[in-house]
Write a structure and sequence with these properties.
- By secondary structure, the protein is an alpha+beta fold.
- About 25% of the residues lie in helices and about 30% in strands.
- The N and C termini lie close together (about 5 Å).
- The strands form 2 sheets. The chain has a 4-stranded mixed β-sheet with strand order 1-6-4-5, covered by helices on one side.
- Strand 2 and strand 3 (about 25-30) form a beta hairpin.
- It is globular, with a radius of gyration of 16 Å.
- The protein has 2 helices and 6 strands, in the order βββαβαββ.
Length: about 140
């Protein structure tokens, strides 16, 4: 039987993680300037959700993650019919940012504990779990026999 570890609502502009660029001195940095604020927002939302449940220690077992990322709908997209965000950013890079932020928040010890990940990107209110504005809805479940 699985147990819900946390339900997290993070409101903000989802940013992808994964594309690196070279800067002076041979350093690599993420190419998105929006990544750091987005990860900080998700980290804070996760810590708040854990605090509400009285969780103070990282979960140590295997987990399943559901992440519904609500991205901005282009002004040119039809208003009255459902459309799909099939352009950048890539859903896997959006999910990577979420998982690393949850590690930073202390939800788990390491994101290697994630054995199943379901991630989708959608526009506001165009998916049953989509937020009314941009952000992410995240559920984390323990995996037990």
């Amino acid at each position: 039987m699985s147990e819900l570890i946390a339900s997290i609502y993070a409101f903000g502009d989802p940013a992808p993680q994964g594309s690196l660029k070279h800067v002076g001195g041979g350093r690599l940095v993420d190419s998105s300037r929006r990544l750091r604020p987005w990860r900080q927002l998700v980290t804070a939302a996760a810590r708040d959700a854990l605090a509400e449940q009285g969780r103070t220690e990282p979960f140590l077992g295997p987990v399943q993650v559901l992440a519904v990322l609500t991205v901005p709908k282009p002004k040119s997209a039809p208003k009255r019919i459902q459309t799909w965000p099939s352009k950048r950013p890539d859903v896997d890079k959006l999910a990577r940012a979420i998982l690393d932020a949850l590690t930073d928040a202390g939800v788990w010890h390491d994101d290697a504990q994630v054995i199943e990940l379901t991630a989708c990107k959608t526009y506001p209110d165009e998916h049953p779990l989509a937020l009314p504005t941009t952000g992410a809805y995240i559920q984390i479940w323990s995996v037990t026999e």
